[in-house]
Prior knowledge:
Low-confidence stretches: 1-8
Order of helices and strands: HEEEHEHEEEEHH
CATH topology: archaeoglobus fulgidus dsm 4304 fold
CATH superfamily: archaeoglobus fulgidus dsm 4304 superfamily
Structural class: alpha+beta
Number of helices: 5
CATH class: Alpha Beta
Helix content: 25-40%
Mean pLDDT: 93
CATH architecture: 2-Layer Sandwich
Strand content: 15-25%
Number of strands: 8
Shape: globular
Amino acid sequence: MASTRRSGPGWPRTFEEARTIQESLRGRVRIEPFRRSIRRIAGCDVSFERSVGRVFAAIVLLDWPGLETLEAATAVRKATFPYVPGYLSFREGPVLEAAFARLGTRPDLVLFDGQGLAHPRRFGLACHLGVLWDVPAIGVAKSRLLGEASPPGPRKGDWSPLLEGGERLGCVLRTRERVKPVWVSPGHRIDPDGARERVLATATRYRLPEPTRRAHGEVTALRKAWMARHDRANRGRGAS
Length: 240
């Protein structure tokens, strides 16, 4: 199996270092029409357990167009960067990289639970890891980080552009009738229209598209299992 690993800069521990990395890498983001064929789509999600300071990641690989799960890769890491809006990739990036390196097959497209261009420095999680992994990437967020948009219509597929200062950052997309929309923005090697079309195509019966929805289920199970082992180990030490 070919390795999916791509090398990138070391992960920083200070805001100054993080800001420098964002500034140095954002020029490598390519926003362009997506014309390649798709056979495999990955979804990524991350969960944090404050009580133990651990970050959990899951990447689920699905086939297209069947959306059958092909494989899942997970990782657990100690949190080394605090949660601060605009710097999410420095908290979640290291553990996602560890999970990505464990995938046996490289995806053609990756959906992230986070932002892409809809970021103060136009370099959200989907941009950052899309560049490092050199893979087409889309940010699918459950809430707005910045920009303005009118509410989309109530039907599945309705959308409105997400704008800031006249710049189109993505869209607000209704993926299920009369359910809260998601915030979609391109991350790398795809444009706003392509990002919207791919997210809608992978949204079946739920608010979240299938790749990130399944990654969410995988990372939730990972965190629960890890915490159960942690609690049993603590009880065992207490009894000795």
